[in-house]
Amino acid sequence: MTENTLLKIENLKQYFPIKGGFLGRTVNHVKAVDDISFTIGKGETVSVVGESGCGKSTTGRAILRLDEPTEGKVEFEGRDVLGMNAREMRKMRSEMQIIFQDPYASLNPRKTVRQTLNEAMEIQNVVPKKERNARIIELMETVGLQKHQIDRFPHEFSGGQRQRVGIARALSVNPKLIICDEAVSALDVSIQAQVLNLLKRLQREMGLTYLFIAHDLGVVRHISDRIIVMYLGKIVEMGETKSIFENPQHPYTKALLSAIPVPNPKKKSERIFLRGDVPSPIDPPTGCRFHTRCPFATDKCRDEVPVLEEKDEIYKDKHSVACHYALDIQQGKHKPKYNMTDVRRNLDDEGTDNKSQEKQLENA
Amino acid sequence: MSENILDIKDLRTSFFVEGSEVRAVDGVTFQVPEGKTLGIVGESGSGKSITALSILQLIERPGEIVGGSINFKGEELTEAKNARMRDIRGNEISMIFQEPMTSLNPVYTIGQQLRESYKIHQGLGKKEGTKRAIEMLELVGIPSPAKRVDQYPYELSGGMRQRVMIAMALACRPELLIADEPTTALDVTIQAQILELIKELQNDIGMSVIMITHDLGVVAETCDYVAVMYCGKVVEYADVETLFENPRHPYTVGLLNSLPRHDVDQDELIPIKGSVPAPDEMPTGCRFAPRCPHASDICSKLPELETQEDGNDVRCWIYTEEWDGEKGVAVYDREHTT
């Protein structure tokens, strides 16, 4: 572990039990996060991306122990977070804060800005009582709210302003790490840009570290230093932002990037269509979890779980990928099994391709 | 230039709440050329969805269409009788909504809901209707359609439900499809499937599309023409290439400058300052003036939507003789995005 590491996650697992049957016993588990490891350096912005249900929000919540992780290790500045008792954990939370997606739901509608911010400072006791008012005004100015709005209720603010209140609340306890869980997703672009610029400025001024959870890859490219791509509870690819966008190596990352509409009518991107939907995390596919939708999948992908590792020498220490064939695909040695640009192809419910299976059978 | 299938002039839809009038749609003018896709972009509250509902005459009290004309293939829809509108809806003009779960009826099977359309508009019976429903589900790429036709909406995923919505909207092969944020609730990989599907079906059937969205990426990929709306008004109407290459209205420029891009590197986003004015604080002049970096004295008067040399329209004083601000002001700085 280097000096510079702020947060270290090791083999984190989060399984949610499914109760069922006559006696309400646990019949199965939703494997929301299944054995992931990564680190975040001080002052860095790391983004976790992926589609709904890939486990990105669960990861954020597990780090803060908002949901108790099933297994694994979370270290913050070398301290073991999961081993802390309730009192230690409360103190810990002044160093790790979270901003939620929905500013409507995450602020108490019956508390004014003053009360909301005051409560946070009181619980953590970071500022002496006498100085709290001045600090609240300072915080409001920092996030771009006006002093005279201090006694307003959440409903008196617009969506962007409410998100600023959420940011002020997170900042009020002087955290080192802020987890932004889809913090700008609900905002219109013009307001979203304001909030993104604010987050960047705060990072410069206060040396904050962000774990940014988002599905909008435009936002992610703009704000992150490094990116973690998740699929069905696993990390499939992790690397520096530039490297991920310019040289994606996992077939899923490629498909994800190619799927984003480009705001330039002259640039038509070559699109890779994924078949069907994300499988259920209750009984995730064996081997590589992406094999059911991957045009490159082989028997090996069905049987062996790929390890997240640095495949490409050029990108050593910068970019790792969990795919058996990442290098072969890149060098053109391993070809896709079917045309990836036809959207109306028929699939069966497992997401496998009827036609290609039939063809395979014929060939055999 | 091709014929316009839909021609809207100065459409006004207001809501009368607690004695005051909220002008949700306040003088909207645009055309949809036949076989083409028109995008309507704007942020929340700009009146995009109300415009769509107005076209189908689906505005309910306390809302009311208070003026303007909606011309569909030569027929004036604002004067159409209810019976005629029922005949048009779902048959000649169809609509897809944002949230497929709330727009599908949870207590009927997919097949029952699809058959309804065939029964009402084409008088088909149960057997024939089911056959057509299965064909339609297959057309939109739903796996095992014969099995799916007897399932309920809750048994399908979000992407599947949106496909069912599309199947339903296209059941009677409409001439105009209105898609109101059809992919906003979906993940990008599913969004890509749905947008491509709409495009392919459009080519097959030869229909025109109105694509309502807030995503400029979706606009660039799917639309031929674009109407940019702000506070109930169209501020710019242009073909898609001009809109992205040479945007004229400061609001359009503001939208492009505040968009985080995944395809290029940017140093800093340039946001639009402030926020959309509340309905009771609506400026009487140019609605965008309080947030506009170029605003001048004349902007306290309302500009008209005026046609420019290249045939595109813009509602801004900068492009008129009367402009009293800085001459030749650079509204769009292309350097920023390239």
Give the key terms.
heterodimer, A: 364 residues, alpha/beta, Rossmann fold, four-stranded antiparallel beta sheet, 13 helices, globular, disordered C terminus, B: 338 residues, eight-stranded mixed beta sheet, 30% helix
Number of helices of chain A: 13
Tally of DSSP β-strands of chain A: 11
Task: Profile the largest sheet of chain A.
Answer: 7 strands, mixed
Q: State the helical fraction of chain A.
A: 25-40%
What is the CATH class name of the largest domain in chain A?
Alpha Beta
Residue fraction in strands of chain B:
15-25%
Q: In CATH terms, what is the architecture of the largest domain in chain A?
A: 3-Layer(aba) Sandwich
Widest beta sheet: strand line-up of chain B: 6-7-8-3-9-10-12-11
Report low-confidence residues of chain B grouped into runs of 5 or more.
none
Strand order of the largest sheet of chain A: 6-7-8-3-9-10-11
By CATH, the topology of the largest domain in chain A is Rossmann fold
**Shape of chain B, please?**
globular
Strand content of chain A: 15-25%
Instruction: Label the structural class of chain A.
Output: alpha/beta
Kindly report the greatest chain-chain contact and the residue count on each side: A-B, 54 and 54 residues
